[in-house]
């Protein structure tokens, strides 16, 4: 299969002692490229530092997205994100968006919205795609994004809502990225996958989270980029497609969306 992990966190504590080994293991399993995603100024800087170290070992393998997660409204030093975004290995802005799962009382809603808008504005300013985090915030995400009609390049990472939101995103030219949670039997996500054209699909691990089945049931405790293969297999099963052929389309989607070089494998 042609494998790419468009959203992983090798910059998180779970990988502090072995991110090199994880990158090499994923490469050995056929992963051609990964995107390491920041969730605040510090992890965004770490993502960039780690990617440069990995690329000395495996040429043109790791790329970066910088941003501040919706749950980190207390870590808003946005000028640091703007500075990091100037680096050529930064291929996207985010992850950013709205999260009312962790903030069920909407206590930080206004702060989240303002932070989300800053990311959209930066993505438009420097002409890089946006990685959107949306958790239990469909309506408000649509409202905020609707204020930016020029936003064309965006992907909903770890898509976990319904086919109505999927249809809206596709109609606006956006992409949906699926992760290991699609292997847990969620019928709502399955329906969204059924109705999403393969030309608008990407895959990710969100590592170290969302270990896909059957690996989770086998006792695996940490997700790694090579596990995108299980996500592709599940999408192929749902859509009745050949997994190898599907992986080629998903890889093409991802490389074109993030404007990644095709060489380096």
Description:
The chain has helices spanning about 20-30, 40-55, 80-85, 110-125, 140-145, 165-170, 185-195, 230-240, 245-260; strands at about 5-10, 30-35, 60-65, 90-100, 130-135, 155, 175-180, 200-205. With about 260 residues, the protein is an alpha/beta fold. It has one domain (about 5-260): Metal-dependent hydrolases (TIM Barrel), CATH 3.20.20. Helix 4 (about 110-125) links the parallel strand 4 (about 90-100) and strand 5.
Which of globular, elongated, flat, extended, rod-shaped describes the shape? globular
Q: In percent, how much strand structure appears in the residues?
A: 15-25%
CATH class, anyone?
Alpha Beta
Count helical runs. Answer: 9
**Largest beta sheet: strand ordering:** 1-2-3-4-5-6-7-8
Described by strand count, sense and barrel closure, the largest sheet is: 8 strands, parallel
Low-pLDDT stretches are none
Write down the secondary-structure element order: EHEHEHEHEHEHEHEHH
- CATH topology-level name: TIM Barrel
Terminal CA distance reads: 13 Å
- Our Rg estimate from Cα atoms comes to 17 Å
Helix content: 25-40%
CATH homologous superfamily descriptor: Metal-dependent hydrolases
Overall residue-averaged pLDDT value:
96
């Amino acid at each position: 299969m042609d494998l790419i992990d468009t959203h992983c966190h090798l910059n998180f504590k779970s990988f502090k002692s072995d991110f090199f080994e994880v990158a090499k293991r994923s490469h050995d399993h056929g992963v051609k490229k990964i995107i390491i995603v920041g969730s605040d100024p510090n992890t965004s800087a770490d993502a960039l530092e780690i990617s440069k170290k990995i690329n000395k070992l495996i040429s043109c393998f790791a790329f970066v997205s910088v941003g501040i997660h919706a749950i980190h409204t207390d870590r808003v030093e946005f000028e640091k994100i703007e500075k990091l975004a100037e680096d050529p290995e930064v291929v996207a802005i985010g992850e950013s968006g709205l999260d009312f799962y962790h903030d069920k009382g909407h206590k930080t809603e206004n702060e989240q919205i303002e932070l989300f808008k800053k990311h959209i504005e930066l993505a438009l300013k420097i002409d890089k795609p946006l990685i959107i985090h949306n958790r239990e915030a469909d309506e408000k995400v649509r409202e905020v994004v609707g204020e930016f009609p020029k936003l064309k390049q965006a992907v909903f990472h770890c898509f976990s809502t319904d086919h109505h939101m999927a249809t809206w995103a596709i109609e606006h030219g956006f992409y949906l990225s699926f992760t290991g949670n699609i292997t847990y039997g969620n019928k709502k996500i399955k329906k969204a996958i059924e109705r999403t054209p393969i030309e608008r699909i990407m895959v990710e691990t969100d590592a170290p989270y969302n270990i896909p089945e059957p690996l989770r049931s086998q006792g695996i405790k940490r997700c790694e980029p090579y596990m995108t293969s299980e996500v592709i297999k599940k999408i192929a099963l749902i859509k009745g497609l050949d997994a190898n052929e599907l992986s080629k389309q998903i890889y093409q989607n991802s490389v074109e969306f993030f404007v990644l070089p095709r060489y380096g494998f």
